[in-house]
Amino acid sequence: MLDINLLRNNFKEIKKNLQKKGFEFDEKTFESLDSERKRLQIDTESLQEKSNILAKEVAQEKDQDLKDQKLKDAKKISTDLKEVKAKLDSALEELNNFLLEIPNVLSEDVPDGKSEENNQIIYEKGSIPEFSFKIKDHQELGELSNGINFEESVTIAKSRFVVLRKQIAKLHRALVQYMLDVHIENGYEEIYVPYLVNKNSLVGTGQLPKFEEDLFKISNEEMYLIPTAEVPVSNVYRNKILNSEELPINFVAHTPCFRSEAGSYGKDTKGIIRQHQFDKVELVKFVHPEDSENELDKLTKDAESILNNLNLPYRKVILCSGDTGFASSKTFDLEVWFPSQKTYREISSCSNFRDFQSRRMKIRIKQSKENIFCHTINGSGLAIGRTLAAILENNQTEQGSVIIPEVLVNYMGGTKELNLSR
RNA sequence: GGAGAGGUGGCUGAGUGGUUGAAAGCGCUCCCCUGCUAAGGGAGUAUGUGGUAAUCCCGCAUCGAGGGUUCGAAUCCCUCCCUCUCCGCCA
Known about the structure:
Layout: H1 4-20, H2 27-60, H3 64-100, E1 120-125, H4 138-144, E2 148-149, H5 150-156, E3 163-164, H6 166-185, E4 189-190, E5 196-198, H7 199-205, E6 223-225, H8 230-234, E7 241-242, E8 249-258, E9 277-287, H9 292-309, E10 314-318, E11 330-338, E12 343-354, H10 356-361, E13 364-365, E14 372-373, E15 375-383, H11 384-394, E16 401-403, H12 406-409, E17 417-419
Parallel strand pairs: 4-8, 7-13
Antiparallel strand pairs: 1-10, 2-3, 5-6, 8-9, 9-15, 10-11, 11-12, 12-15, 13-14, 16-17
The protein binds one RNA strand through residues 9, 38, 41-42, 44-46, 48-49, 51-52, 54-60, 70-78, 241, 362, 364, 369-371.
């Protein structure tokens, strides 16, 4: 959520900024909502004041006639008050709903652009493998030894789910363990959180009210499956005031993520790139506003270190204005190379939300004069399924085996190569 | 799931309809005095929001959340959430 005072005073500038994201800020509606709110609030509060004063006088009035008169007046005010208060409440709600649907403003250094194609490559790292044989995609590789099975997952659930078996399932687990260990080593605190969250948490991080259709909702309760660990982990401190000495706070969490993928029919139907359920190791930071740019770079580097250590070829891009998400002010994507698609695919998305989420969640930092909203930053470190798929594809051999990256060998119980053809 | 108890400021803990935004104690901050294995005195110490650009000033709201009764609610009523104890069930 944006600072309403900023909107009141700088809406020209903000409007221009939001246009780059493809959002048209309706200042007419805003101004009428805000002025209506102001009028009603002033009316309500002055009536309330009168009512409070009269109530005290009634209590102290000894003269019965005067007391009766005051009681009569007080009753009248009370009825009027109820009426204006109701109007104020609905005005405030309307204004709030309006504000909740406004995206975050962009950082100055975010490049202009309409869509994905305008994202800017910052650099490419690692060497793209050359194959002297006809390569298989990760699904084909996984199916060689029934390590990836889509028939069983359809029987159990439906499409866009997967069953992993044997060495592939173990590699999946190894990746989780490895990533957690690296991030803990780098100063992140491991945290385990609920996979079902309430509505307020989703409003807090910005998934609601605008993106309800992307979520799985539990039918018998007002709860949702998490689309990312960002939601429960960020909300750990909702409504809390943090001491500045304890910042930055760094969390790492491994959770499954559930996404309805509404509107992505026919997209990435092959393999495990786009699933309703996938695992992810997520990094979340709560930082002082002054440090957030710097901390975003640090978090992105921490996510990159996994790709580097796994020897996967990847590139770092900065998302252009039109591709930057609703709540983000600036986002770096890390994209890993998929030989079968001859292209880079997103494997991590690292964003600085500034005070957009913390204002919604009411997470503040204790200051001597006025408490301020902290900044939140998060990013994947990394998406497990896609990392698994990338390893299978990039490390395959002509014999249909897959070389295990060195850093994972111990996590695989010493296995250096998966012989999938057997 | 059944029975009972309870949710008050950073913490402990008073308060069952009227200057209570909230006693008291602890903690913390500042000042003064004294000076020595210490202590004493004083002041301050929640959050949000509006009037305003504003540290000051004034108003309004907040005693788990949301409704209700009343001129007036931390105090009474209803719904929900949470915590604790006992029973049941269960990984």
